[in-house]
Amino acid sequence: MSQSFDIAVIGATGTVGETLVQILEERDFPVANLHLLASSESAGHSVPFRGKNVRVREVDEFDFGKVQLVFFAAGPAVTISFAPRATAAGCTVIDLSGALPVPHVVPEANPEVLASLGKPVQVGSPSAAATALAVVLAPLKGLDILRVNLTACLAVSSQGREAVTELARQTAELLNVRPLEPRFFDRQMAFNLLAQVGKPDALGHVALEKRLVSELRELLAAPLLKISVTCIQAPVFFGDSYSVSLQTAAEVDLAAVNAALETAAGIELVEAGDYPTAVGDAVGQDVVYVGRVRGGVDDPCELNLWLTVDNVRKGAALNAVQLAELLIKDLL
Description:
The protein has helices at 15-26, 76-88, 128-137, 161-175, 207-219, 254-263, 278-282, 313-330, and strands at residues 5-10, 31-38, 46-49, 52-58, 69-72, 92-95, 122-124, 145-154, 226-233, 240-248, 267-269, 288-295, 302-309.
């Protein structure tokens, strides 16, 4: 591609932002000038890109007129503060924070949505969990899915670098027989499972669970799809894992299901009798791994799956870059 683009990445020192920059280089994205932006606390750090160290600057002082494309990979508050400025400057905005009321797109599930967007484009890259589920469920839509039951075992990196540091610190303290003092988490995270990720509302649901339900319905164009989801925090640094049970309108043809998963983009189907793990398979990879494909014990209209994915890479950063690749091809 002969044309190149000036790009800004906001949240460049976070786990997703750094991975996004890495993927831009790996995929040879046509970057002319790369501007790395973050809060004042992170300004001054450097991130490697194409053999050079690019200095991170404060987002508050940035002139968005210098770029055509902006990735918002920081928290919702940052996106809400600066996305209007980027849009006013004519930039295409890809939001990874979930803060903007914009269409959400996963290239393997609903890329046709991009064609209907006006300029300047604002589009959302959904939560890592919604991205992984959409990649796998999109090729199975022919099953006439009535209900999705999901248990999401989320890596601590889903809550950012501070959570990763906290798990490492707690692990070291316990292995060295030192008293444990929880800081980021409200109780022991190392060698433990926490039954919720974030604070629940009055009905007991956390924000990520509600976001996942909304985004998955949108990505599958199934606004009435019934979805039951429980997000738990697992003592894993990177890599989410999901136990998924689907209730379908008709008896499940397992051979057809396996064939659909085998040929679908973005999926690695593990052979029968084996199963994937986050650490052993998914981390560092660009696909969603699927295993333990099976029917119900006593219900022919039930399909059960085990999924695992690199939440930072495939679930967040790669999906955003794939959106940018489609946008520069058709819209920018």
